[in-house]
Specification:
Rossmann fold; 16 strands; five-stranded parallel beta sheet; alpha/beta; 37% helix; 11 helices
Length: 333
Amino acid sequence: MRIAIVNDMRAASEALRRVVDSLPGHEIAWTAANGVEAVAKARQDRPDLILMDLLMPHLDGAEATRQIMAVAPCAILVVTATVSGNMPLVYDAMGHGALDAVDTPTLGLGGEMGGARALAEKIGIIARIVGSTRVTPKRPAPQASLPRLLVVGASTGGPKALCDLVMPLPHDWNVAVVIVQHVDVTFAAGLATWLGDRTGRPVRVASAGDVPKAGDILIAGTNDHLVLTPQRTLEYRVEPKQIFFRPSVDVFFESVAAHWPQPGTAVVLTGMGRDGALGLLTLRQKGWHTIAQDEATSVVWSMPKAAIEAGAAAEVLPIGRIPAAVIDHAMRG
């Protein structure tokens, strides 16, 4: 891959350059010292991946990500001095299309590098995306007590789209919401908190053994696949190992199609890759109402486009109209 580096600190840029130079098959496309410069360079020469700092003069990394995704969309990895210390900006950047985040490697006095392996692993994962993409079961919940179910899959740009979807939903309705967002386990709990703070809704990470209840808004929270069991409880599973996207929207949607006894609503939002298309199709064939986000409002249209091409989407809507469609179908159903 051709990789660009955006960082206003010379030592940090040098550390990033050394990591990229050490990885076979990758090269430096260009470097930029701030967000304004990065947007201009990306427009002229779009790389395969941008390593984007967050705190920079003139234009921070979150806003630079938004502008780049609008004019020259590409894979963006947030690389900042402290991810945990900049969580609001990290989630803003992810909402605008950044794929992941990692701490900036540090150069020691003797030339040793701290944090290089973590960055190299993230670059490897993104390279594959760009090149492609147990508890004791509870007794089944009585069907009469089951709420309707809204299941959502999202990836690149998902946090912002999830905000737009969740915020208008009723607080008091007989619907449980379960979300599978492609996000590393280290960010899942923070994403739930961030989404709850942005929407004023109680959002939490799904726990093994949970039975979706009316009013719940649950987010998949590990690097394993979230599934619905025959007992209608939620569980995390390593299998299938060969599926690259973890947690997988397809795996979750297929399990819901198999084990949830009444049709609900399923939505595929903005994202890179094809995850969710086949699962959405299965749900549609089972009588579920299925929606894909439209191209104009998607940060990356790959996932919704794949679902549409598969014939999986009953409706294709801009993000601003999806909540009303979800509510209307839930109330009519």
